[in-house]
Structure formats: structure tokens, C-alpha cells
Amino acid sequence: MPTVVNCPTCGTKVEWIEANKYRPFCSERCRQIDLGAWAEEKYVIPVANPLDDFDDEAPPTPDRKS
Ligand SMILES: [Zn+2]
Q1: What is the value of pTM for the model shown?
Q2: Does the annotation list 4 as a binding residue?
Q3: How far, in Å, from the CA of 25 to the mean position of ligand 1?
């Protein structure tokens, strides 16, 4: 009796077996959706933080103060 997991994308029950190359996803489509979500998250976080870092490491230029 194989282990059964829920597809992280759609919640469908997936048998954790060698034959299922998309595990823990139920299909290639769900795997792609999840990878896409990850890629988006990774992309957003670095963009949000550098603004904070920028102030600490590089003081504002005199031109911008006036
Ligand atoms: Zn799925």
C-alpha cells in the first residue's frame, strides 16, 4: 500500500510511487503551477528588500537632499 499525499497545488490525492514522476504533484500541470509560484515569490522578495539595504550601505547623494 503506497503512501498517499495531497497534491500541493490542487489537493488531489497522489500515490507516492516511482511511476508518478510528478510527485508530490498529481500532474505536470500542477507541478508547473507550483514552480511558477515559487519563482514569483523569489523574484518579489529581493526587489522589496534592497530599498532598505540601500540606505544603510550607500548614503543618499547630496543632490537628492536638496
Ligand atoms: Zn494537482
Answers
A1: 0.54
A2: no
A3: 5
